[in-house]
Amino acid sequence: MGKRQIRIYRKDIPQHLPELKMQDSVQVILRNRVVVQGKLITATEEEFEILDGRRHEHAIPVQDVEEVIYDIEAPY
Predict the structure, then answer these.
(1) Environment class of residue 42 by beta-carbon count within 10 Å: exposed (0-12), middle (13-18) or buried (19+)?
(2) What is the pTM of this model?
(3) Domain harbouring 54, CATH code
(4) Residue ranges of the alpha helices (H) in the chain?
(5) How much is the pLDDT for 1?
(6) What is the rounded distance in angstroms from the CA atom of residue 67 to the CA atom of residue 28?
(7) Nearest CA to 6 among 22, 26, 24?
């Protein structure tokens, strides 16, 4: 089963919020190249709240985000 990564850049985040909220796991790459991976709890045009693998919550302002990546299953 193959996977594909979907990349959403900061300028495109507002129109992709509904699909981001449906993902099991996302990777948020910050402008300083730090990566936060986890479940998106809430997402607005101003801020993301992510619950990581250690069950810690992270509030991330969208202006600090470089891109958001999530995986989808390929059809083959």
Answers:
(1) exposed
(2) 0.88
(3) 2.30.30.100
(4) 13-21
(5) 60
(6) 6
(7) 26
